[in-house]
Amino acid sequence: MTTLLKQTREINHLLQKTEKVDYSEVTKLLSRCMEANVYLIGKKGAIIGHALHEGFECGVMQDDLLEHGQLPEGYTKVLSSVRETTCNIRPKNGGCVFKEQLQCPYAGEKYTLIVPVVGIGKRLGSLVIGKFDTDFTEDDLVMAEYGATMLGMDLLRGRMDRMEEETRKRTTVQVALSTLSYSELEAAMNILSELDGDESLIVASKIADRAGITRSVIVNALRKLESAGVIESKSLGMKGTYIRILNEHLIEEFNKKKH
């Protein structure tokens, strides 16, 4: 079995063995195979995963960028402008690509490869790879592009999963609100207006007196919302009732009802 085929199979195995992919593990594998620094960068510059080649030391990268998990806006724009695989990029005038006023300690020996990460025609990020003392080979390019393709598929799947989860949460709130009577909806609105952020302690009798509704209406509204899984409530006796919002779309949907 050729080395390249073995390496691509390793990537396949790593991406398929768990439901939630650890992108740092993928970049570590690519780093080991290519003997290079590897960074998976999101569309807005977030460092999603990275692996540094043994012996690499750079204060700007390690202490500033990796520490905060974010690339500078300027370099993020540079990555976004790269529409196809671009290899063996050299630092201009020996300067740091992140901080132009600094000299790159690897200026004379650094080669950079940028591969766009795409899913269904949409740019999801970039795979940035840095080698030292030697430029990129054809096998490196094949490995990098294959890795970027597989990562793009997984990032897209993750995005679709998040969209589905958001849709499910919104639908859950809408269904929960549809079960409330007009008076219960009014009671729920008064309750939520009392919350400090996503949780608080409320006194149902005070809300009932102020809103001109019965306490039983408030209790029914809370029971229905809790049954739907959008809030959590707990009676604390004379102190009142502890309320915590479990679905972040609840307030948003209530605000729509107001208008």
TrEMBL record:
Which terms in the GO cellular component ontology are assigned? Answer: cytoplasm
Q: Where is this region: GAF domain?
A: 1-156
One GO term in the molecular function aspect is: DNA binding
InterPro entries referenced in this protein's UniProt entry, alphabetically: CodY, GAF-like_dom_sf, GTP_trans_reg_CodY_C, Transc_reg_CodY_N, WH-like_DNA-bd_sf, WH_DNA-bd_sf
One GO biological process term: negative regulation of DNA-templated transcription
**Broad class of the protein's primary localization:** cytoplasm
Q: Which cell locations does it reside in?
A: Cytoplasm
Q: Which residues bind DNA?
A: 204-223
- Does Transcription appear among the keywords? yes
**Which PANTHER family does the record cross-reference, listed alphabetically?**
GLOBAL TRANSCRIPTIONAL REGULATOR CODY, GTP-SENSING TRANSCRIPTIONAL PLEIOTROPIC REPRESSOR CODY
Function statement: DNA-binding global transcriptional regulator which is involved in the adaptive response to starvation and acts by directly or indirectly controlling the expression of numerous genes in response to nutrient availability. During rapid exponential growth, CodY is highly active and represses genes whose products allow adaptation to nutrient depletion.
- Note the HAMAP family from the entry: HTH_type_CodY
- Put simply, this protein is called Global transcriptional regulator CodY
Gene source species: Sporomusa ovata
